[in-house]
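Subject: mismatched residue count in predicted assembly?

I count 281 residues in my input, but I want to confirm that the predicted structure covers every chain. Input:
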Amino acid sequence: MAFHKTYRPYIPAGRRWYIVAEVAAGLLICLFLFTGLDKLYNYHQFKDALGKSPLLVDIANVLAWSLPVTEIMIAVALFIPVTRKVGFKATIIVMLVFIVYLSYMMAFAPKLPCMCAGLLESLSWKSHIVFNFLMIVLAILGIVASGKRSSAGSRAPPA
Amino acid sequence: MKKYLFGILAAVVAFTGFAFKEAKSSKRADMYVFEFRSSQPYTQANVQNPSNAYWEYKGKNLSGCANINQKACRVLVSADYVDDPNSPTELAGVSISATQSGTTAHVTGISGAGNLYSNQAD
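Triage response: the counts match. Full output below for your records.
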């Protein structure tokens, strides 16, 4: 009888958390950069869609440029390691604001189309809320991983 | 440089995805969007009249309205159904059908293949 013993390559805890933080940041950078660029590129369509929303009609002009700019700024914050935690926290705040807005739309204007860019446009309001919750989980994971990574890295070697 | 690797990769993916999406949507035929002037009474006769006095050009490839069949809102037509595709001001060669209930009418049909309409809440 032959026994096979497999060895999993050892990845130090600090390294593991580093990868988790990097992947979480990478996914969120991808999301914010894509949606931000799309909204700026299709500025007139985005502004028009905001104007159709009963909640945002008065601030559509300001929101049409400030929202994509905020999204790109969050992507930049996530890109720079020093400001990454701030980026994760901003992600949570922005996603919570989106969830409040989406919940309102679901209740009062469920048939209004969403100008959310890319694949997100094809999601229903409900799926969109679920997606945003997943992004919040990802951001929390990013914050935790960033903290673990720094504490694992600063641990003093045994005497 | 190594610490920016994931970020650079993510940015490249985002830019590529965006470029692909825009290239794909630029191949689609433009839809010209006209909105019923809210200053006009929403009667059946007015809604069915494609004149610029009732239907105002709003832009290309804009989204529709809430799709609640209570009050006329927007029609989306292809280049064949506008007076001048380079500088559109008015619908041309299109017939709109509407139904009135009470004082407001909503669109129930539009001629021309691929042309669309969407109504709004009263």
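Strands of chain B lie at 32-36, 55-60, 71-77, 96-101, 104-110, 116-120. Marking this ticket as 'not a bug'.
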